[in-house]
Amino acid sequence: MTPAVLVLRGPVVKDAVAGLCAEVRALLEGGAAGVVVCDVAGIGPPGLAVVDLLARLELAARRAGGRIRLRGPDPALRSLLLLVGLRFQVEGEIEEREPALGVEEEVEPGQPAV
Predict the structure, then answer these.
(1) In the prediction, which pLDDT does 68 show?
(2) Region label for 43, one of left (φ > 0), alpha (ψ between -120 and 50) or beta (otherwise)
(3) How far apart are CA 51 and CA 78, in angstroms?
(4) From the CA atom positions of the chain, what is the Rg in Å?
(5) Which tens digits make up the pLDDT trace of 34-71?
(6) Which residues are CB-neighbours of 70 under 8 A, at least 6 positions away?
(7) Residue 38: beta bridge partners?
(8) Rounded distance between C-alpha atoms, residue 42 and residue 73, angstroms
C-alpha cells in the first residue's frame, strides 16, 4: 500500500498546525499504510516553528497508530532536528535499528572475541 503524501509549504504559522494534525490523523484513518509522507522540501528556512510542527505531526500520527516520514528535508533542517533530539525516518534512507538480542558478530578464526 502506498503511503499518503502531505505537502508542507512555508512559512509555518501556528494557526495551521491544528488543521495539519487533523489532516495527518484523517490520512492514517483512511488507510495510509500506517505512514504519512510529509514533503518538507518547500517548507522554507528551518526554525523552531518547523521543529514544533513536525513534532506535533509525529505525535498526532502516533496517537492515530502511525508515523510520519520526511521527504526532501534540507540538511539544515535535519541538523536542527538532531540538535533538539528528534529523529524522523527520511524517505530513501534505511531505518537504523538496534541489533537483535543474543546475536554475536562473527570473528576470524584465531582472533579473540571482542
Answers:
(1) 96
(2) alpha
(3) 10
(4) 18
(5) 999 999 999 989 999 999 999 999 999 999 999 999 99
(6) 37, 38, 40, 54, 88, 89, 90, 91
(7) 6, 70
(8) 9
The larger pLDDT score, comparing residue 106 to residue 109, is at 109
C-alpha cell at 74: 534540507
DSSP character string of the chain:
-PPEEEE--SSP-HHHHHHHHHHHHHHHHTT-TTEEEEE-TTS-S--HHHHHHHHHHHHHHHHTT-EEEEES--HHHHHHHHHTT---EETTSPPP-PPPTT------TTSPP-
Length of the chain: 114
Please check whether residue 92 is in contact with residue 98, taking contact to mean a CB–CB distance below 8 angstroms: no
Task: Say if residues 53 and 17 touch (Cβ distance below 8 Å).
Answer: yes
What one-letter code names the amino acid at 12? V
Q: Which amino acid is at 60?
A: A
